[in-house]
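Backbone geometry tokens:
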Amino acid sequence: MNPSRRRFLGSVSRAAAGGAAVSLLGAPAILHADAPKARVVVVGGGYGGAIAAKYLKLADPELRVTLIERNPVYVSCPLSNEVLSGERNMESLTFDYRGLSRRGIAVMGDEIVEIDPEQRFVRGKGGAVYNYDKLILSPGVSFDFSSIDGMSAELADSTLPHAWKAGPQTLLLRRQLEAMPDGGVCAIVAPPNPFRCPPGPYERAAQIALYFSHHKPKSKVMIYDAKDAFSKQGLFQAAWKEHYGDMIEWVPAAAGGNIEAIDADSMTLVGPVEDFEADVINLIPPQRAAELAVNNGLVDDSGWCPVNQQTFESTLHSDIYVIGDAAMAGAMPKSGYAANSQGKVCAMAVAAAINGQPAPAPSYVNTCYSILAPDHGISVAGVYELKDGEIVSVPGAGGLSAADADARTRAIEVQFAIGWYRNITADMFT
């Protein structure tokens, strides 16, 4: 038997073992008999994975690129806080993968549960096997519910939504705010560093206060924080005061804001100094890399994935690359734009390695926008470089919105945020 035909039939039999995989367009998966230059599997179809798959195909059309995502559509976390204020609907955050399919990328609907770095395959929840020469993971984060006594994943889905992955919990939190009496309290429990930034808890406080200002003006937003400082703090606090008066109150860890336990029945948060009752609780747990990475030996003692920061190849397993929130990426934050930038750097590095070329010199960027009122936006931008194997900030590049900016500038920043969102999602999904 022809060796290439034998390999093809072997891959068919392994994929069939758990039932045929199905593309996210609803058609059966097509297994190609022709041998590609290389097989690259990308797991995770968000800000990092979708862009990595696209740019791999752009870099080398001869690659067989397979994107595996468990959800049929992607719902963006960035800008999802506006759903809580009523300024945005979920449809504007939702995207499908048809644009990537049209580029020749095989988009498969499956949840990957196993990675075999020796045999170079990943296995889906139903048993389907996907072979790879190079594997890119953009798995996101998981939540350490056990760190807060009384909290659980089940409570997050039913009663105490974190809404840190946009979708059903975002809508649950919105419904809870609508049902809350005027004069009630919404408590946000902010996690310790590091955590996935968008949607930021401090922007979320502003968007909830915007809703309250229109519909429940006697209500209050309390932020109980595991930290004593946060990014863009001065800009946030000035905007809160300007638009919402005393409606938002921040309690840092030093003042007893580090929540240790929760009683869901009485809606009580237990702190080190005193307890706090609320009508709505948005508890955002501490975070680490997604369970896929944890369960398959891709994290170190920090709970995150160590990588070669030039290429994003795992330092624990060769030919496996980790991008986005799960990766340890030096000075870069865990944000959608950072994941997008890393996806492009990684795609170029993988294409170069497959073609026997050195990895190109990387450059990385990030901008995080926060919309605090319909005409009040702020941002922090960063430009990064590789220095001695570590991603570091470029001195003098990027920076914060000016503290003394006028109203016109703040309104322009909102338009910049919306324009950024439109551009980045168009880049991801078309």
